[in-house]
Design a protein that fits this description.
This protein is of the alpha/beta class and 208 residues long. It has two domains: 83 residues, no CATH class; 87 residues, Cell division protein FtsQ/DivIB (Rossmann fold, 3-Layer(aba) Sandwich). Helix content is 22%, strand content 32%. The protein contains four helices and 13 strands. The strands form two sheets. A nine-stranded mixed β-sheet has the order 7-6-5-8-9-10-11-12-13, with helices on one face. A hairpin with a 4-residue loop joins strand 10 and strand 11. The protein is elongated and about 75 Å long.
Length: 208
């Protein structure tokens, strides 16, 4: 299941403390989009080691997964931090997460079920076009891997089916693919290959 489809309304308060010369900080951290990533756990661990306001704010500024945050310093060294993290829609080249605004941030190997995309970074809008397209179709054709090469173009695949789209993702190709998948849904057998690169039709293979 693709987690980027869902907003996570999980209110999570995590407490940490850190050493100072006089008195420990006491942190209340609210991840407004939920606790999803390994990088969040690492952030909390590093937060517990901070010794000043400057260190706290520098640490927050280093987190590329943070979209917005607010921080409130209270008496008795209590610190409240509210964080809204970026929500990825896919993983790019096993290096970055990409969110809906095409902002990239470091992939921390959290296993969250996102689609993996391998393509040049200037092609990521086309990758999202494919993801959005498959989202409205039957999940049995939802790819877990999307690849782009300058020789073969776009290929979307999962454990059962490989779909070749060619270099250009035209509306005509997407319409023909949607019609083909709607037709295939009337059958119980799932093809191993669908090739949309032909101008006059679509090739389908049921081979192993």
């Amino acid at each position: 299941m693709l987690l980027y489809k869902y907003k996570v309304y999980l209110f999570l308060v995590l407490l940490a403390s850190c050493s100072s010369d006089q008195k420990n900080f006491s942190f209340s951290v609210d991840f407004q989009s939920g606790s999803l990533f390994k990088s969040q756990a690492l952030f909390l661990n590093n937060l517990s080691k901070t010794k000043s306001r400057g260190e706290i704010e520098s640490l927050i500024a280093e987190q590329d997964w943070i979209l917005y945050y607010s921080i409130k310093y209270e008496k008795d060294k209590k610190v409240s931090i509210s964080i809204e993290n970026k929500v990825p829609i896919f993983i790019l080249n096993d290096k970055y997460y990409v969110d809906k605004n095409f902002s990239t941030f470091k992939y921390d190997n959290s296993n969250l079920g996102f689609i993996k995309v391998f393509s040049p970074i200037d092609e990521i809008k086309n990758a999202k076009t494919l993801i959005d397209f498959f989202e409205i179709l039957d999940n049995k054709y939802m790819p877990n891997l999307i690849e782009y090469s300058y020789t073969s173009g776009w290929i979307a695949s999962n454990e059962k089916t490989r779909i070749s789209m060619g270099k250009i993702l035209s509306n005509d190709k997407l319409i023909r693919l949607e019609e083909t998948i709607n037709y295939l849904n009337q059958n119980t057998k799932i093809p191993s290959m669908i090739d949309v690169r032909y101008k006059d039709g679509i090739a389908i293979n049921y081979g192993e």
